[in-house]
Amino acid sequence: MKLVSFDAAGCTFERCNFNKLNSPHIVLGAGKNPSRYVDCTFDGIRFRKLLFGLARFERCSFLDVKIVNVFSHGAEFVDCVFSGTMNGAVFYGRVVGIDAEFISRRMNEIRGNDFSRMNLSDVSFRAGVDLRLQKLPVGENYLYLRDAERKVAVVRRKYVERSASEVRRNVLLYLGILSDEALDGQNELFLCRDSAPYLSDEIIENVWNELVEATG
Question: What DSSP element (H or E) covers 205?
Answer without folding.
Answer: helix 201-213
